[in-house]
Amino acid sequence: DIQMTQSPSSLSASVGDRVTITCRASQGISNYLAWYQQQPGKLPKLLIYAASTLQSGAPARFSGSQSGTDFTLTISSLQPEDVATYFCQKYDSAPLTFGGGTKVEIK
Amino acid sequence: QVQLVESGGGVVQPGRSLRVTCAASGFTFRSYAMHWVRQAPGKGLEWVAVISYDGYNKYYADSVKGRFTISRDNSKNTLSLQMNSLRAEDTAVYYCANSITAALSWPFEYWGQGTLVTVSS
Prior knowledge:
The complex is a heterodimer. Chain A is mostly beta strands.
């Protein structure tokens, strides 16, 4: 099965900083990659799908990109409400594996 | 609006069985694939299983294959997960989730509130 490796596992940044999270697939998954945000105590929320398509309602400061089997979630200007754990997920076929998560905190 | 409501969680001894269900409303349940996802306390998300709209195609995570069975009743708009031979590592909040698409594999727009399953003696 394809493994999804997310990095870093946690990060701390200041409000207004640009934040980057990476997810690497162990094999090609085309662009079948989604990103979720899970704020503390809340349900996961779909942010991006098809590697770079912003889900309706997600803030425009979130963006996604792809280079081969490497995927990146970028927050252009970190806001206090972005404190959360972020997960990538492949959905080319079952199993729909999630990455291990990246916990984002405010410095 | 789409609503997914899980039930059936609880405390169960290792080796025993439990069945959790998800009641769906607000969309044409029989037309869409449905998934189970779990999250152990303080841990990440783990995809568990998917069932096609008609119930004919089912896929499982390796960690539950042979022990868990996903099923659906399109006449009652319910999704179920029968969990047998439970282990301590199955302790988690179990969520049903889906997207309103025909695809079997698609990211999840909708999540239930989850039901906690605790496997402990």
